Amino acid sequence: MRDRPTGSESEADQAGAAAQPQPERRRWPRDPPVQPMAPGVAPAALTPLHFSTGELQPAEQFQAWRAHMAPLVEVRLPDSVPPENGFVAEQTAWHCGNLLIVQQRAPGHSYLRPQAMLRASPIDHWYVELLQSGMTWTEVDRRVGENGPGRLAFRSLACPFRGRATAADAVLLFMPYELFADDIAVLGEANNLVLSGNLADLLITYIEGIVPRLDRLTAEEIPRIVHTVHDMVVACVASSARPDAAGPQTNKGMMERAHRHIHLNLHSAELTPDSIARAIGISRTRLYQLFEASGGVLNYIRRRRLQQAYAALSDPTDHRPIAEIAEAAGFDVAANFTRAFSHEFGVSPREIRKAAATERPIAPVAPAGRHRGSTIGDWLKALGN
């Protein structure tokens, strides 16, 4: 250990130091060194999608939120709140193939998914709402489900609903109908169900464990997580089902049977309104009534086939020519397929195929004439791809 300098030495050192120009000290921390990725560790597979009204002028914020949410629900401010007061809302979404995880923060508002919206919307997903703060009250078929912090609600976007929310933080899990096509008997009458019990607590713990790790998940881990979420949701719904759910077959039950038949026979040339009606044991007129809110049964089939085509074009291991994929989607003329595909997703089939080849997938974007930029509806259209 060095001896402590004497007083004279210390004074000389200080004098010498004073004579030398002093370099300017940096007043901000240095950037941390980049840590090399450990050998054998796969890179993260997810890139978040963001939406926020925070950078807009207060008078513009609520209109931007309305436009972003318009494909899903109509949103309105409370009667006592003018739009000029501002509406700072934000979403961060993570596209996991058959699962869209959305972290959302929004002030109080009301929301409505009317019957008319279902006619023009291809969105019929199931979703789970996990509130971290705030409250929601959602009415479906005159039954109100109340959800609060640390609780789960399970709903279908294939049915009209309305409700209101206080200022809230939430995690929303959207899953396409096809993911639950084999679980109709369990889910058919579970719409707007608030989940409870030990299994619901386990699902909440699982979701809360996933969310902080989304930016680190690998491509190999994502399908396993989706499979686990699916199984846990079905188990939770089964254990939380209402005692009166096993009553006579309702319109919802018949619709679920029709959806499942379409899903299982999507690429069959024999898939027609007549064959569907025979398979589920109803008249063709009744079938048309069931699908009236979806824009008609043929329109529903067409949208499902286009979504399957999107999935095939997004798969780098699927080397079929675009014309063959178009034919499987029910299009004999390539130009008609390209036109319908571009209208539905805002990008051409060739763009999706090119992006898949470079392993840089792109999500559908809003076509010209709709809302500026991508909306939550565009995020949901990419599910299953």
Automatic annotation (TrEMBL):
The keyword Transcription applies. It comes from the Bacteria. GO terms for molecular function: DNA-binding transcription factor activity; sequence-specific DNA binding. SMART domains: HTH_ARAC. Residues 1-41 are annotated as: Disordered. Residues 256-355 form the HTH araC/xylS-type domain. Pfam families: HTH_18 (PF12833). It comes from Rhizobium fredii (Sinorhizobium fredii). Keywords: DNA-binding, Transcription, Transcription regulation. PANTHER family: ARAC SUBFAMILY (PTHR46796:SF6), HTH-TYPE TRANSCRIPTIONAL ACTIVATOR RHAS-RELATED (PTHR46796). InterPro entries: AraC_XylS_family_regulators (IPR050204), Homeodomain-like_sf (IPR009057), HTH_AraC (IPR018060), Tscrpt_reg_AraC-type_HTH (IPR020449). Residues 7-22 have a biased composition (Low complexity). The keyword DNA-binding applies. This is AraC family transcriptional regulator.
